[in-house]
## 1
Amino acid sequence: MTASSTQSKQKLTFEQFIEYPLEDGRYELVNGEIVKILATRQHDDIADFLADLMKAEVNRLNLNYKVSDRIMIATTTKEGKEQGRFPDVSVVSLDIWRSNRLAYSALRDPLQLAVEVVSTNWEDDYIDKLGEYQRLGIPEYWIVDYLAIGSRDYLGNPKLPTFFVYQLNADGVYEVTAYRGSERIVSLTFPELELTVEQILIV
């Protein structure tokens, strides 16, 4: 995804942000400013493909999760500034989701799994959101760099499409595994999921 120009010059809190009158679309709160998120059709197709796979697993195994592309979460920067993030796909415990069903979809509780499909603003996913999701305590975070546009520090040389799975360890720090080509992606949230990078690239 890419971020368009901010929609408001006013610095907002998270609470103000979720009540701010906005046009249709997806928005994030970044450093107190509202940013509209723009995604290509391929980006959306990959996010939809992953969400559909997850929903099928939830139904097949009767898992206690909700899978959605419409969940806003409150995160914090390392300086303590509150952000409003909108993962491409979110997986959240049904217990958390149903704890207040009259509320808007914004959550302060950690998701079980967040997915970001990388676009031109790749540093947001690899650096900013990684730190914010770790601080929030999201157990599993996927970065799907299908265009291989992240830096060589992450992708190696030559750069290849890569699927990163970050999982929190006992110290609350993410440990990462990178998957490429026909390697089966291993997820703690969906341990029986059959998924490879090759499948994603033909979506």
## 2
Amino acid sequence: MTRPTKARIRQSFERAAATYESAATVQRTICAQLAAALPAGLQPARLLDAGCGTGHAITLLQARFPTATTLAVDLSPAMLEQIPVACGRLAGDLEHLPLADASLDLYWSSLAVQWCELPRVLGEARRVLRPGGQLAIASLGPATFHELRHAFAGVDSYRHTLAFHSPEEIDRMAAESGFAAIEVTNAREIAHYADFRSLLKAVKAIGANQLGAGRRTNLMSRSAFSRAEAAFETLRTPAGLPLTYDVITLIARI
């Protein structure tokens, strides 16, 4: 699958660091759901939040595992600066972790791996986990932001969302990477917005507006925007304009 360059992803999240928390309501919900999916009795001595963003999950993990050494890795130094609690902070790529082999008991990642080549991420997670180590990942599936694809279908031929792996693909990749006790679940979270402009602004505020090859590289005309807006309005519900997050959770261990 085509992904934006790491430089563009970093740039996007550097810009979004100051606005991310104000727009990340769904992201916080998904973090809580991933935490609830962790096995009972888990007591990691050393854990990693991979693609930590502004550190919301770090707070959850430290509350649950107060004696664990906590590490945070993100591609964006500006995101790392937003973390509100003490932890080890490393600017790095999830496909090339700056960590030693067999050095972690828990690898956690919520809504970050969709920006990466997933087999490489899982290979790195397998490398840095100790025997018996736990993997917990929340990513996004193919129905994510399908409303945007609907809105722009009759307007242009550009890409308006990332390509996402299916639950079946994620299950297979985890097995091929050497994980066991694999559990993959799928659910949807839907955010609602008052209008099309505020929806697009929220997507940009969380840094989710980088799409890689096939994206629009010129400014959208007023008429194109109006047509997309009108198409999106056909999806309006009593709660507002919907935007779907197709959430895939992967729980596994070494």
## 3
Amino acid sequence: MDDYVWASGVATDLVNTAPEVWHGEDHLPDLASLVAFAELHGIESLACRAADLRAVHELRVSVRELIDHPERDRLVDGASALTSPAGALTLVTDIGRTRWAVSLRPDASVSDALALTCGIGILGVVQVLGAERFRACGAPTCQGAFIDTTRPGRRRYCMPGLCGNRVNVANHRARRAEARLRPGTR
């Protein structure tokens, strides 16, 4: 697994299912929502048990703590801890290049797969882009967080289509209200 962009996206999506992001509504409240989340992110065909839901909620808190406190050593240690119990790390040679490959244990659960994915995403971003890519959402009413994997590194919102749009609409309305208050404008 060397697609850290996809994996860090899964980590971002996971932390943004938390109740504090959605003003009290948990977006992973039950096993059905966990199964849907796993399938949406290509993590399928693993059994989902009640213990997995609790483990994923704990994982969500752990990943959020890493994003909220992005010191390089802390990120590496935390992400390594996420990956260590979930799978096996090997060196693979493909078409003349050597790379690391990670595979899940045969008895792995969906929480193991998500932990491994989040850990790989965090480690990849730290290595390739740096610790400054871990951020809180820039929308004033949002408590979300994200890992910025964009080329220029200027992402501002955890969910650009939602938070970014809300900020843009609020700014547009404020400009229109200000224009109405100025003399000589409509």
